[in-house]
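Researcher: We're teaching a course module on how sequence relates to structure. For the next exercise, students receive a sequence and then see the predicted structure as tokens, so they can try to spot secondary structure elements on their own. Here is the exercise chain.
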Amino acid sequence: MEDISQKPSHRALWLGLLFTMLGPISNGLYFLGFPASAVVWITVLLPAVGLTLVLIGLRRAFGQSPYRDKVGGAIAVALSALVLAASVGVFVLSRRLPQPSTGTPQMGQRVPDFTLPDSAGNPVALSQLLAGSNAGGPPKGLLLVFYRGYW
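Model: And here is the predicted structure for the students to work with:
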């Protein structure tokens, strides 16, 4: 006969919750130098492993534990499933980000000439700005600020 007085092991539930929570935290690996493509996969795989462990723990809780363990296990499953769903959502959205354009000018390369209005509405060409001053001084630099809003 099975000994009911023995305290049930909750290792699978706690370990599963730990793995699940490490998923979103693993995004910090990018700042430690890990490649971004690996970080995205780690962010999805850790919650998946965590949800699996939590489900194993929930099965054990329903099989041998009192009612309070069943409630805690169900909450752990819901939390793990929510974190996994969020991780998969971020994974899918990150795959839709636009890729860098191959036609953009590189560092040190001269940009094509263009004309834009200045703050008074007068047209100013890039070639005018980079031509230098009338006194023959060195060419000027240029900083473009793309502001998406209103002043």
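Model: If you want an answer key for the exercise: The mean pLDDT is 76. The longest strand covers residues 115-117.
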